[in-house]
Amino acid sequence: MSSFADILELLVQGHASKFDYDFPESLSSLLKTNNLPSQSDTKVLEDLSKRVSGALRLITSDMESLIGVHSQLKKIEDHLLHVDADIKIAMSSIERLPVEILVQVFKAATSEMGDALDMRWEPFVISRVCHKWRFVATEQCPEMWTKFMLEHAVWDDMEDPAALLSLVLSRGAERSLEFSFDARAGKNVTEYESENDSGEYLSDEDNDVIYARRPRKDDIVAEAILQDLVRHCHQWRDVHFSIPARLFSLLSPIRGNLPALIRFCLDGAAEDYGVQSSIPEVFILDGAPLLKTVSLSSSRIKLPVLNPEGVPNLTSYTDDRPLISGDLTLRQHFLNIIRTSPHLKSFSIKHCCSETIVVG
Questions:
Q1: 13: number of Cβ within 10 Å
Q2: What pLDDT, on a 0 to 100 scale, did the predictor assign at position 184?
Q3: Taxonomically, which superkingdom (predicted)?
């Protein structure tokens, strides 16, 4: 059985075969002059005119028929497209879900904390499914962009991680943030770190020299990311920082700008072994009205002491660093925390001091 395309091809060939006309030899001269054709030429031209007129009528009729067929086929096509769309919607009922339901589905699907700089993070994946999902994910569901991790191992090979973080924060639409920021270099080893590859024991002083010489090329990216987070400190709710002591000064602007903060944890990055922090801003948590938990930890490095003042709801304070000097000022700081925190339930410090501390 011939296809419609074959039939159309035969139709075209049938009309094209009529192009072969036997014109009289005088036609060229007659077209260039006003001479009248001879009686015999007139007879030939009259016969040709009838043939051409007949061919025109036939091709015009066929074209009109094709136009009519095209119109009918277009109607059938529109109907089939509509049926196809109905079938696909029926097979994917989620397409009919209202935005409010999709928002709840997306929230449930993104309840786990993932890395906000990894394109495999669930909010990114959801926003790439289709136009409708992208609109709901980026415009109607800001909560799914507010709980995340930021790890050096992920952003280390990225071209512009700070720009991607800014996009994530903008999609959060000023909602409260819960995040973990880890700026530790991890597996990266510099030529200076390899100085001790022999396994020879080095004193803390020797380690201090080696780590003080380490290049800080990673700090540029870490600083940009940390500064962007600090600009959104008014949104912080539950935050955990693992950063080198040399970056602590970037946290100073958060003082007095933490209206939503409930939990604050700070770990010293192991890459700063023996590094002393010279940061005077130890009161960065002052005036956080909702703050309940403060935790400071590090196995070796000496970090500044966090001394929250004007924090009426503090219930837990932990400082588990083993190397804290026992000067009187430091003791007074800890005593002030106890005295000014009426709801304090848990207080734990590793405070090295041979003198007796009197709580007045």
A1: 9
A2: 78
A3: Eukaryota
Residue 225 has which token pair? 């990311």
Distance CA 268, CA 76 (A): 70
* pLDDT tens column, 90-128: 776 666 778 899 999 998 988 888 999 999 999 999 999
DSSP symbols for 152-221? HHHHTT-S-HHHHHHHHHHHTTT--EEEEEE---TT---TTGGGGTT-----HHHHHHHHHTS--TTHHH
Total Cβ atoms within 10 A of residue 191? 9
**Residue 97 CB burial class (10 angstroms; 0-12, 13-18, ≥19):** middle
Confidence of residue 42 (pLDDT cuts 50, 70, 90): confident
Please name which of 269, 274, 270 lies closest in space to residue 210, comparing C-alpha atoms: 274
Q: Which residues contact 25 (CB under 8 A, 6 or more apart)?
A: none
Burial state string for 302-335 with b = 16 or more CB within 10 A and e = fewer than 16? bbbbbbbeebeebebbebebeebeeeeebbebbe
Quick one: tokens of 359? Answer: 């709580």
pTM assigned to the model: 0.65
Of 154, 222, 145, 148, the C-alpha closest to 179 is 148
Kindly tell me the sign of the dihedral angle through the C-alpha atoms of 282, 284, 289, 290: negative
CA distance 311 to 340: 8
Predicted confidence (pLDDT) per residue in 248-282, tens digit = 889 999 999 999 999 999 987 655 544 454 444 47
| Helix ranges, the chain (H) | 4-16, 27-32, 39-91, 99-109, 122-126, 131-135, 152-155, 161-171, 204-212, 219-231, 328-339
Structure tokens at 93: 């009922």
Q: Which residue has the tokens 């946290």?
A: 251
